[in-house]
Write a structure and sequence with these properties.
The chain is α/β, with parallel strands linked by helices. The protein has 15 helices and 13 strands. 35% of the residues lie in helices and 18% in strands.
């Protein structure tokens, strides 16, 4: 038996007036999921424990079977692990976004125009981070370049407990009330202000503005944490597992759990990603010896953060029409039985452009047996109608692994 998780990050949504009161899942053309749902266990799952923020870190950890209340130490260190950064036990790491702020005389009066600096390219970002390193790095603080707008700051002998706001939570808002607070809050704020001064007239930004693109005109620090430790996935579940994702956060969770990281050319973390390549790579890995593959697709989440329901629907349709059929066809051709979980990690409603803690709809399909529990489609409402509910998200994987 092979096990697959198809994770559509942020795929769940609220009902959208301009879609006639439908969610993106309800509006999307999903013939594959429509066919699977009546033969699957469909229900709702609470992936974010009470009292914890609905980040992709907490939620993906939960779906992978790790109780965030036991294992979670912060978002940034998970990304740092994936980036190959060697951390000491006394290090604190922070996510460092390149963002676009409105240009105001007083930094604190700026508005968060775009948390991703217009999805800046990795090459452009690397040039900007290298420039900032020359001016901001010292014995205590070190910047590390990552992918697109996602980077890392390591603080030697640091402290946690700061009030730091994810930039995607404050899209289109003034940053005044969301600036860093805590022991090093003023230091972090000064770094952010200094970055704005340095980046304002950088050639990369001058070129981007000339091309009609958002400039990366500031860094934004958030997501602090300390070096984490996860139990090996194979030891916990008795399965050889792999991770496919464009996102350092999810790769980092997999690396800490001793899972194989499977890189796929053309993965972008957005709706232009290589959907087919991810599915084909997952099938090869399963046929080649892995027992479990977690295919993470960031695209619906990114679209949700931008309030872009058109491309969110498109992303859902690509998962339905490309990812799931490709996996099923290749495993069936090989003669392999499989169980598949389709789920978001959390909702990212287009209306609010950020994550919420509401339960998500899940679907568990077993290739050799009908598990149907009354759902006609895979949607939020249909999942609620079944009355099937998993209250502890980290136990959802047990349902996936236990169906026979």
């Amino acid at each position: 038996m092979k096990y697959i998780v198809v994770l559509g990050d942020g795929m769940a949504d609220w009902k959208i007036d301009s879609l006639g009161g439908k969610t993106c899942l309800e509006e999307a053309d999903t013939p594959t999921l429509n066919k699977l749902a009546p033969r699957s266990e469909v229900g709702l799952c609470k992936t974010v424990p009470d009292g914890m923020k609905p980040g992709s870190d907490v939620a993906n950890m939960s779906v992978l079977g790790f109780n965030p209340k036991d294992y979670y130490t912060g978002r940034s260190p998970l990304e740092a692990v994936s980036m190959g950064i060697e951390l000491c036990d006394t290090d604190v790491t922070l996510r460092c976004n390149l963002v676009t702020l409105s240009e105001e005389e007083n930094y604190a009066d700026s508005t968060m125009v775009d948390y991703s600096a217009g999805e800046i390219t990795t090459e452009e970002a690397a040039e900007l981070i290298a420039y900032l390193k020359k001016h901001l790095d010292n014995e205590k603080f070190t910047l590390y370049p990552g992918i697109s707008y996602r980077h890392c700051l390591v603080v030697k002998d640091g402290v946690t407990g700061h009030e730091l706001t994810p930039p995607h939570d404050i899209s289109d808002r003034k940053i005044t009330d969301y600036l860093p607070k805590g022991e090093l809050g003023n230091v972090y704020l000064e770094m952010m202000k200094r970055s704005a001064e340095l980046l304002k007239n950088h050639p990369v930004n001058i070129k981007r503005i000339a091309e009609g693109k958002y400039p990366a005109n500031s860094i934004w620090l958030w997501g602090e944490g300390t070096k984490p430790a996860l139990s090996p996935f194979e030891k916990e579940r008795g399965l050889k597992g792999g991770i496919i994702s464009a996102v350092d956060l999810v790769k980092g969770i997999g690396m800490l759990a001793g899972m194989k990281i499977i890189d796929v050319e053309g993965t972008t973390g957005n709706y232009d990603t290589n959907f087919k390549g991810k599915a084909e790579a997952a099938a090869r890995a399963l046929i080649g010896g892995l027992d479990f593959v977690y295919i993470h697709m960031e695209a619906p989440d990114e679209c949700g953060h931008h309030g872009d329901f058109v491309h969110k629907i498109y992303s859902i349709e690509q998962i339905d029409k490309i990812v799931i059929p490709t996996l099923m066809d290749k495993l069936q051709a090989y003669g392999e039985s499989f169980t598949m979980l389709v789920t978001p990690d959390h909702p990212t409603p287009c209306a609010c452009k950020t994550h919420v803690s509401e339960p998500v709809p899940y679907l568990i399909y077993l290739s050799k047996k009908n598990l149907g529990n009354g759902a006609a489609r895979y949607t939020e409402d249909e999942a609620a109608k079944t009355k099937q509910y998993v209250a502890d998200g980290h136990k959802l994987i047990e349902r996936l692994l236990s169906v026979k």
